[in-house]
């Protein structure tokens, strides 16, 4: 008997029944825990006397089968089974999806489907401002709630903002905070200001103030200084508060 990894602590009762011609059936049972071995011995001098052999395996555990909706919905997305809408990105990549999932997860998608945003007779929605990689990760999140790749946090935040995916926004914001570094923090500050995210903006300014000498030598800071004087002034004002 082969057991799954999940069954390693489960108890089983194995029952062997041998029916012999013209004789009373012989029954033997043994209990096995997980991958432990076990032997059932039955004396039978003449194999031609055996009419039938039955083996019954019963689980003695009260543990219910594990529910894994994340895995199941990931399979639905990957298989494209029963899909009823096609999302097309700006580069022409197509993704099959399910309107009931998108509607349940996003009020924006729900409104789009209610108001007949689908292209006539094709059940397609073209999203010009999203590339294939971002669409793939957004759909993975919508179907499974799985953690996002940190390197995709910024574009996924933009997508989450567009489709009112508040939990995804929070995940992306946290990823941007946790991966903040000297080389890119000025870009993060600009991104936070663009999207009106005050928490992320404050975190970025605080990081810059603490690392002001190294940050101001980076290309991202030099670009910020040339393109957004107000943000630079916000940082310098915070530096002044800290040092005077």
TrEMBL record:
Give a GO cellular-component term. Answer: nucleus
Provenance organism: Musca domestica (House fly)
In the record, what lineage is assigned to the organism producing the protein? Eukaryota, Metazoa, Ecdysozoa, Arthropoda, Hexapoda
Q: Which Pfam families match?
A: BACK_BPM_SPOP, BTB
Q: What is this protein called?
A: Uncharacterized protein
Q: From which domain of life does this come?
A: Eukaryota
Q: Which InterPro entries match?
A: BACK_BPM_SPOP, BTB/POZ_dom, SKP1/BTB/POZ_sf
Entry similarity comment: Belongs to the Tdpoz family.
Places the protein is found = Nucleus
Q: What is its main location?
A: nucleus
PROSITE patterns found in the cross-reference section: BTB (PS50097)
TM annotation in the entry: none
Keyword terms: Nucleus, Ubl conjugation pathway
